[in-house]
Amino acid sequence: MSSSTTSHRFPALHNAMWPGLVGKGPESEPFIDLDTMLDLTAGAEVDGVRFDGVDLFLSLPHTDIDSSDDDLARLAEKLRSRNLRAGSLVAPVWPPTGGGSAMGDEAERGRFLTQVRKACQIGRKLRDLGVRPYGVIRIDSAASPADWVTDPDASTKRIAETFREAGTIAQGFGEKLAAEGEICWAGMHSWRRNVELLELVGMPETVGFQADMAHTMLFTMGHNAPEDRLLPEDFDWSQTERLAESYRKMARALRPWTFDFHVAQNDGTVKGTGSHDKTGHHCLPFDPNGKLDIVRDAGAWMRDDKGQATRAFAHICWDGCMFPNAVMLEPGTWNDVLRTMIAVRNAHGWD
What is the value of pTM for the model shown? Predict the structure, then answer.
């Protein structure tokens, strides 16, 4: 590795595989298969530095949540042959992928918990196969804020009960769960509601938070929770320090709970398809419309209030959902992403 390019060894740098699936399909562009996503990731290089691994979505057409031992052995070999390792795994807890609402009836909650159990089983098997030295199982509430708002207290209590049961399952497999805060998920649609939910779950060593830089930026804007906005509705985006201050305030509340971290960019707009009904718009790292200073704002999650590196993440992952296939299939895209990830590690990593 070039010492001028990378100044720290940790955390490891990962790429997310689910952008090949999220927002794709029959009503959109074709899915991008896992082998292609792995090849694009393994092929990226900046001055001798490469991605260390990938985070996986446990749903077809990528990785079957009902994978056999032979299936997982083949997956491990795919990773090993490309000098990649697995990190965090996304459990398919949503109704369209076989799960159910975390605040639904017993049948829905049962499907949610079944998907968590299956994901934890896969996580343990990939550890046993030697290709997953770290990482968590990612979940969310798999329900909409529109349903939650009909009875906020009861809804949050119900989600917390489900998350506690899921946490107990995870403990049995030596796993941790990270709930992704995003404005489209019930009880997780604002920074304050996320803290409230995690406190109610009360399992800080097992059930924590997954922070995506793009999605959490929308918390400062108050989408789906105007009472929790930190920036005015008519915010002037040229006030970059005010954005940074609000972003730090939001991250300060959630950082103690954060197990998993996505580097990402956002242009401040809201979009979505399918179950991601209303969510943030991921941008390419150097998009001129991007509102975040990625390296600066990553520090809100990777450094504590005294400016010291928290060392909370064995790896960090790039998330770039809903890019057009033409962009995703361009190798230069992943070199730019990798270059950004290296800059984040240089600024906030450790040895």
Answer: 0.96
